[in-house]
Write a structure and sequence with these properties.
Length: 72
């Protein structure tokens, strides 16, 4: 029963993580690191900061749940 619950939570967190990554601002990925974009780098503000924090939290929870699924 616990494995089934962990698997379900893992699927839900994975979907949430994918959605949060897709909602991130365009042009801030690896392409800009290799000269694809010249821009001023500034701190994240407002909804961008909240979205970034939620993405980090979802990734962390997904990692923890995945490790728990392996150990149990």
């Amino acid at each position: 029963m616990n494995k089934e619950i962990l698997s379900l939570v893992q699927i839900i967190l994975g979907i949430i993580f994918i959605i949060l990554v897709l909602l991130q601002a365009k042009g801030t990925g690896l392409g800009s690191a290799f000269g694809g974009e010249i821009a001023f780098y500034s701190t994240k503000r407002g909804i961008e900061r909240i979205l970034f924090s939620m993405t980090v939290a979802a990734a962390s929870l997904l990692l923890i749940i995945s490790v728990l699924g392996i150990l149990l």
